[in-house]
Amino acid sequence: MDDLLSRGLDELLTQDRSLESVFGSTAGPSASSRAPTSSGTSASSGGPTSSGTSPAEIRRSLQEKLEAYIREIELFNPAYGLVGTESHEELVIKHILDSLAPLGYIQRALPAAVSAPGPAIADAGTGAGLPGLPLACALPACQFTLIERMGRRIGFLQNTLAILGLQNVRLEQADIEKARSGPFNLITFRAFRPLEPPMLKALYRLLAPGGVLAAYKGRMEKIREEMASIEHLVSGWEALPVQVPFLNEERHLVIIRK
Length: 258
What we know:
- By secondary structure, this protein is an alpha/beta fold.
- The protein has a domain of 158 residues: Rossmann fold (3-Layer(aba) Sandwich).
- Helix content is 40%, strand content 21%.
- It contains nine helices and nine strands.
- The chain has a seven-stranded mixed β-sheet with strand order 5-4-3-6-7-9-8. The protein has a two-stranded antiparallel sheet with strand order 1-2.
- Helix 8 links the parallel strand 6 and strand 7.
């Protein structure tokens, strides 16, 4: 088991306890994790979730998928240039945990009621699958489309999906402006092109009515500069602070509603 990844998931769970149904837990029931029920007794968070799967089983399944994904990136990165990392630690923190850190915000941005097969999420300019693949591992009830224009990266993603056994992910090789998928309830993007008017219009075209753009961004100062060019095209936006475990850098998730 990857200890750094496990500790990072624990830290994200500490930040937002509502994520236990997603991240699971490596720990059993404890006094600190017991919440009073309406009868005044204590209910442990270490028991089965509403799906009947225990937090430990959820964590084991998620971590196995994420570790397999990390191994694939480390195997192909020297030849494919998938991510700019110099160490395993940097890959885990700056890419995997960074992708998962705003998950609570993303869940709350999704519509409460969606017909089968579940909420539709796209990852625009996914590259090596970030943040789309870590999110898809954590949210098996959501349907993901990873959009990427480069054939080499699509080939890497096809191989990785087969290894991970993910059934809730499809791929589309296209520029965002030419993508034919959708409509989506939510579109994520990270380390992608700046949000300029042409890009905003291309993304809006893929959104369902009431859909949400969720942009992974850094410093608030840069966000304000970037949003200044499109503020007249959106009804409103908010930058939500994100804390990535073991990373002392400013991170935000920018939410823009259609």
